[in-house]
């Protein structure tokens, strides 16, 4: 079998749609059988569709000829109608210019992938995020309105009571801000998929988290050793992780229990952040389940929560190429540890 026949057989049996189109005429030179199996298209039907989709091809070729190398390979997200019933199917189209010996584009080749499963997943994530935000926001709005009324009408109350009003208002404001920043449909839909490259000072990250936590727990310490000056990460994502771990430590320990935030070089390379406390440890039979979506342990009875915090924290750490684990201390207490690689 010749190399050409072998390559043709590979393309013909692929589950993805492969195509080649001539630049000058716009004629489809090849369309793999998967186009018929997945979208119901023959070569002739696909040609009619292609005529409408390549209207921007001349501009692409002109930009490439002028030196714009970004036009060599282009990825697009489209909705294509199924040839048989007309239902719209979300697809990813990736195309590459085929060049001759002079470096001029003579054809376009590429692949078309059915993105229905990814689209459905995104829609479910957005629906879930909207529901979650609504379920949290409704009681918070009720508390917010009630505490504002108490502050407005409680000028005659003693100082300790007014301080409690202020503490409640501060907590409500913080939770509403977290809803806006972290639990928007777009934010939750992005969790576990990709991160935005950025840099932040690890020391500043820990100090800021500790300062915010001290409004709820006075005894919050920061211990740092050998940390790099800058860390490449998604700063908002890492702040979310630390907020979740600190919030758990506060909720599941007594008011006088110290909480320690640790930042240091990891023994296996990379760096680690940790949140430790001397409260009760995690039951051994629950450690493997703790990061599952919606899971709440036996000690969560009577404590407000959704079982989503640790799941979201681990998802963010995962897309940084790191790990999030928990371990119990031999005497008492536990440590949640974030490990992150450092780019060389």
TrEMBL record:
Record has Iron as a keyword: no
GO biological process per UniProt: regulation of DNA-templated transcription
EC number, as in UniProt: 2.7.13.3
Domain Histidine kinase residues, every copy: 131-344
InterPro entries hit by this protein: HATPase_C_sf, HATPase_dom, His_kinase_dom, HisK_dim/P_dom, HisK_dim/P_sf, PAS, PAS-assoc_C, PAS-like_dom_sf
Transmembrane stretches, start-end: none
Single Gene Ontology MF annotation: phosphorelay sensor kinase activity
Domain PAC: 74-127
Catalytic activity reported: ATP + protein L-histidine = ADP + protein N-phospho-L-histidine
Gene3D superfamilies reported in the protein's UniProt record: 1.10.287.130, Histidine kinase-like ATPase, C-terminal domain, PAS domain
Claim: Transcription is one of the keywords in the record: no
PANTHER family with a match to the protein in the record: HISTIDINE KINASE 1, TWO-COMPONENT HISTIDINE KINASE
Protein known as: histidine kinase
Lineage of origin: Bacteria, Pseudomonadati, Pseudomonadota, Betaproteobacteria, Burkholderiales
């Amino acid at each position: 079998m010749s190399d050409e026949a072998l390559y043709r057989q590979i393309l013909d049996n692929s589950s993805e749609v492969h195509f080649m189109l001539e630049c000058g005429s716009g004629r489809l030179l090849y369309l793999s059988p998967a186009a018929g199996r997945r979208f119901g298209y023959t070569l002739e039907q696909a040609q009619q569709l292609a005529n409408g989709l390549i209207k921007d091809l001349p501009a692409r070729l002109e930009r490439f000829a002028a030196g714009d190398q970004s036009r060599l390979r282009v990825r697009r997200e489209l909705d294509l109608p199924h040839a048989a019933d007309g239902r719209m199917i979300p697809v990813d189209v990736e195309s590459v210019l085929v060049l001759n010996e002079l470096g001029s584009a003579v054809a376009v080749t590429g692949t078309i992938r059915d993105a229905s499963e990814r689209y459905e997943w995104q829609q479910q994530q957005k629906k879930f995020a909207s529901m979650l935000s609504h379920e949290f926001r409704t009681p918070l709005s009720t508390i917010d309105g009630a505490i504002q009324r108490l502050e407005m009408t409680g000028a005659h109350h003693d100082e300790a009571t007014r301080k409690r009003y202020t503490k409640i208002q501060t907590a409500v404001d913080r939770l509403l801000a977290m809803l806006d920043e972290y639990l928007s449909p777009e934010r939750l839909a992005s969790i576990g998929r990709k991160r935005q490259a950025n840099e932040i000072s690890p020391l500043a990250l820990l100090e800021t988290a500790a300062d915010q936590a001290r409004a709820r727990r006075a005894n919050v310490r920061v211990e740092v050793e050998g940390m790099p000056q800058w860390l490449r990460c998604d700063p908002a994502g890492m702040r979310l992780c630390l907020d979740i771990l600190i919030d758990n430590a506060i909720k599941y320990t007594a008011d006088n229990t110290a909480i320690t935030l640790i930042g240091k070089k990891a023994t296996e390379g990379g760096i680690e952040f940790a949140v430790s406390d001397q409260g009760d440890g995690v039951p051994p039979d629950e450690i493997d389940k703790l990061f599952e979506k919606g899971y709440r342990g036996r000690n969560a009875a009577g404590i407000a929560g959704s079982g989503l915090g640790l799941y979201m924290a681990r998802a963010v750490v995962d897309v940084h190429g790191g790990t999030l684990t928990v371990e119990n201390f031999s005497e008492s207490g536990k440590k949640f540890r974030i490990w992150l690689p450092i780019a060389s």
